[in-house]
Amino acid sequence: MSGSRKRDQLNLSALDARNNITAILESWSALVAEKLGTLVPDRTVPHLVRFLALHLEWLTAQPPATDFADEIEGLRAELARAIDPDSGDLRTPARQCVVDGCTGTIDATPKNIGNAPKRSISCSSGHSWEIREWLTLRHLMDRQRKDVA
């Protein structure tokens, strides 16, 4: 087949990304479990992700929330490079702003707020959301996408 990959090559960067994903998700899950007095889930990516998603609102209200967001963004970028190293850093696509009547687009790549350690996502017209509001923003974006479909 033209253009197909050789099956005998091992993608070490994909294995590294997989190990990093598991280690980082496990570390954050352990922190959440310790602080909330609950059990740590099984050491599989689906279980760890479900656990963190279940406690995401609590986690984003904590002081290390920015570190969590940065590490997850780093994993996304590492995985994107492992999957397609020639494409550069794959960015999250821009979406229409969720504020009624706004014609701006939301760039879902987090940005620093001034010199403060807080991070935000903003639209091209100036609306912005802090890290603690991202879950709500995601739900609004999902609802908006369903309304268009």
Strand order of the largest sheet: 1-2-3-4
For the record, the count of structural domains works out to 2
Unreliable spans are: none
Give the fraction of residues assigned to helices.
40-55%
Following the backbone from N to C, one meets helices and strands in this order, namely HHHHEEEEH
From the spread of the alpha carbons, the general shape counts as globular
Largest sheet: 4 strands, antiparallel
- Please count the helical segments: 5
SSE order and pairing:
Elements: H1 12-36, H2 45-54, H3 56-60, H4 65-83, E1 95-96, E2 105-112, E3 119-123, E4 128-130, H5 134-148
Antiparallel strand pairs: 1-2, 2-3, 3-4
Helix pairs in contact: 1-2, 1-4
What can you tell me about this protein's structure?
- This protein is α+β, with helices and mostly antiparallel strands.
- It is 50% helix and 12% strand.
- The protein is built from 5 helices and 4 strands; from the N terminus they run ααααββββα.
- The protein has helices at 12-36, 45-54, 56-60, 65-83, 134-148, and strands at residues 95-96, 105-112, 119-123, 128-130.
- Strands 1-2-3-4 form a 4-stranded antiparallel sheet, with helices on one face.
- A hairpin with a 4-residue loop joins strand 3 (119-123) and strand 4 (128-130).
- The chain is globular and about 45 Å long.
- It starts with 11 loop residues before the first helix and ends with a helix.
